[in-house]
Design goal:
single chain; 258 residues; alpha+beta; Ribosomal Protein S8, Chain: A, domain 1; Alpha-Beta Plaits; Structural Genomics Hypothetical 15.5 Kd Protein In mrcA-pckA Intergenic Region, Chain A; 3 domains; six-stranded antiparallel beta sheet; four-stranded antiparallel beta sheet; 15 strands
């Protein structure tokens, strides 16, 4: 059975790339540094690396619990330095009053607006009076030249050492819901207050992710521990399955990312 059959159709091009990377490292004794990968992609790399000999992976996104990270594939006898992960970091500030009203999506849009692809930068940390950003070192100079505004707000971009990163601790608003089933469309619809007819379109368009994997089937079953995101609406995680009501409905405790 081909390894491709273990993954979703839309994931197969990435799987093929990873297999090519692993072949190069294993047989040509090269190293491969990836761009920033999301947790689902990192999981795929971990899955595939377990099927080859003498290859290890080193992962870093600038801090221990980074969501998006670069991966260095290398021979198992080699111990890389952190500097080989090719990370750079910046602090963004502004004197404009509107600066504190900027959202994550504003920074994301402005970064992509510079011409960079999403996989060239990692996590974005929004604090009350500054923002920190992790990027691929090879685009750091380019970014300094081209990022001077975020959503029409003038900003200053200053390089900082990776050790100066102050990760944001995500806050989750706890809520309790009761749903007739664990289907993705039912649970996400209840959390985001969307009718079934309104949530089906974005799901079928591939805008729903469960644990960073695109799920385009409304009947996909979610469970305790899953992290669910819907583009344009937000992200939540299922904290606990609290049992079944007398009418057969499912009680869930969920955390909605603020």
């Amino acid at each position: 059975m081909s390894w491709l059959e273990h993954f979703r159709q839309e994931e197969r091009p990435f799987v093929e790339r990873v297999l090519d990377w692993l072949d190069g490292v294993e047989y040509q004794h090269t190293k491969k540094l990836t761009d920033f990968l999301d947790p689902r992609q990192i999981h795929i790399v971990k899955t595939l690396i377990g099927k080859v000999d003498h290859v290890k992976m080193t992962v870093s996104g600038g801090f221990l619990e980074a969501e998006r990270s670069r991966v260095l594939l290398h021979q198992d006898y080699y111990e890389p330095e952190l500097d080989e992960l090719g990370l750079a970091s910046f602090q963004i500030t502004s004197r404009a009053p509107a600066f504190q009203k900027l959202k994550h999506k504003d920074y994301l849009g402005s970064l992509i607006g510079t011409g960079l692809k999403r996989d060239k930068f990692g996590d974005i940390h929004l604090h009350s009076d500054f923002v920190q950003l992790v990027v691929a070192r090879e685009v750091a100079d380019y970014l300094r030249l081209h990022l001077n505004q975020v959503h029409h707000v003038s900003v200053s971009l200053d390089p900082i050492d990776i050790s100066e990163l102050t990760p944001v601790v995500h806050e989750w608003k706890t809520m309790n819901i009761t749903v007739p089933s664990s289907r993705a469309d039912v649970v996400a619809g209840e959390v985001f207050r969307l009718s079934r007819s309104k949530i089906l379109t974005p799901i079928r368009a591939g805008h729903l992710k469960v644990n960073w994997m695109v799920v385009d089937s409304p009947s996909f079953s979610v469970k305790e521990g899953d992290i669910v995101s819907l583009r344009g609406f937000g992200r939540f995680k299922i904290l606990q399955e609290e049992g079944i009501t007398k009418k057969g409905n499912i009680r869930l405790e969920v955390g909605l990312l603020l």
